[in-house]
Each structure stands twice: as structure tokens, then as C-alpha cells.
Amino acid sequence: VLGLLVWALIADTTYYLHAAYGWVLFVSIFFWILTVLFLVTYLLQLQLKFYMIPWPLVLMIFNAVATVLYITAFVTCAAAVQPTSWRQWDYNRRAAASFFACVVMITYGASTFFSFRAWKGLGSNAATSQVTDHA
Known about the structure:
Blueprint: H1 2-11, H2 20-43, H3 55-80, H4 88-120, H5 126-134
Helix pairs in contact: 1-2, 1-4, 2-3, 3-4
């Protein structure tokens, strides 16, 4: 939802006048689509059918790449906001898009941390640790 807000706010401005917003749109739309595809994959439990793919590693790499590219998108978007814009609504939307890009960047960073823990096996709870100890 937050990624959708980023690209919807940018797409509603005159982004074509500033080349920097093309990068922000690319990053936000690309990772929004991939995140929705991963969500559908997990909701339909398709990862169980493709058991040969190391899903925790794939998700960790995806989240890490998304974090790094969202850092660049956030910095680009924030640097391109011009407070002396002749169109006040463009300024407000671009500033809000910068804020939400920062929130999405932090969210992907937290997801990277948790997917790293899942990949290393550090995210187990008491029930799973007892089952694996006796098996």
C-alpha cells in the first residue's frame, strides 16, 4: 500500500518535466509489482510446489535489493522537491511521495532483517525448536 502511494503521488504530478522522477516511478512500480507477485505466491502457497527454490534466500535478496534501490529513489525524490514550485499541489504531492518513499525504504529494510533471520534459522519459536530438538 505504501509503495502504491509513492508512485500514485508522483504519477499525479508533472513528473515528465523532471528526469529524476522517472527513476522514482520505475523503482516504486517495479517493486510494487514484484511485492504483489510474492504476496500472491504466498497466499496461494505456490512456494510449496516449487520446493527446490530457497525461498528465504530469495526473499532476503529481494528485500535487500529493494532497500538499496529505494534508498536511491528516496534521495532522488527528496532532492528533486522544489519548495518554490509554481504549482503548490505538485510540491505537496512530491513531498508526500518523498515521505512515503522513506517509509517504504524503512519497511523493506526491516523485511530484509527478518528475512535474514529466517534464512539463517534464527527466527524459530519455542514450539519449532522443541520439535527439531527431539527429531
